[in-house]
């Protein structure tokens, strides 16, 4: 039987991709106790990074919001894989950290990371409401404009 999270993803027209393997010496997810830590996910699809560059230096907020949403989709794909295909094991999303490649004068990182936060709440409902940090950085791997990591409480 399809769970409520999978049903909500289908209602939103989101098909979670196969998780992207790590690009370096780390694992995509670590479970410890009742917590699941998902490594930072980039805005990647089958064609590669969808948005590169810096906010405040050519990259627009709306495009970066969409990229953050794609990062969140990739976070859920990694979580589903780590949970043996069962997202119903998610009790709640505890914490999200969003990194935004930013020019020194750019200060609207929270608007960008809202793309991920809004998606998580749309999919998970109240258990998707989370603590969050939105951090501006000079550069991200592969030139990506956004990266999102997350911590879930699971059963």
- The whole-number mean of residue pLDDT values reads 97
* Number of DSSP helical runs: 3
How big a fraction of the residues is strand?
A: 25-35%
Q: Name the structural class.
A: alpha+beta
> Rough shape?
globular
Name the poorly predicted regions: none
Order of helices and strands: HEEEEHEHEE
The number of E-state strands comes to 7
Report Rg: 15 Å
What would you say this structure looks like, in words?
The protein has 155 residues and is α+β, with helices and mostly antiparallel strands. 30% of the residues lie in helices and 28% in strands. The strands form 2 sheets. A 5-stranded mixed β-sheet has the order 1-2-7-5-6. Helix 2 crosses helix 3. The mean pLDDT is 97.
């Amino acid at each position: 039987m399809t769970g409520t999270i999978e049903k909500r993803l289908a209602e939103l027209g989101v098909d979670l991709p196969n998780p992207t393997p790590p690009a370096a010496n780390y694992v995509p997810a670590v479970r410890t106790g009742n917590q699941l830590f998902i490594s930072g996910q980039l805005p990647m699809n089958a064609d590669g990074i969808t948005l590169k560059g810096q906010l405040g230096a050519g990259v627009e907020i709306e495009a970066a919001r969409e990229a953050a949403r794609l990062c969140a989709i990739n976070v859920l794909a990694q979580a589903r894989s780590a949970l043996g295909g069962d997202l119903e094991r998610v009790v709640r999303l505890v914490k999200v950290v969003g990194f935004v490649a930013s020019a020194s004068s750019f200060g609207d990182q929270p608007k960008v990371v809202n793309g991920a936060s809004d998606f998580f709440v749309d999919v998970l409902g109240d258990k998707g409401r989370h603590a969050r940090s939105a951090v501006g950085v000079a550069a991200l791997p592969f030139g990506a404009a956004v990266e999102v990591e997350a911590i879930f409480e699971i059963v």
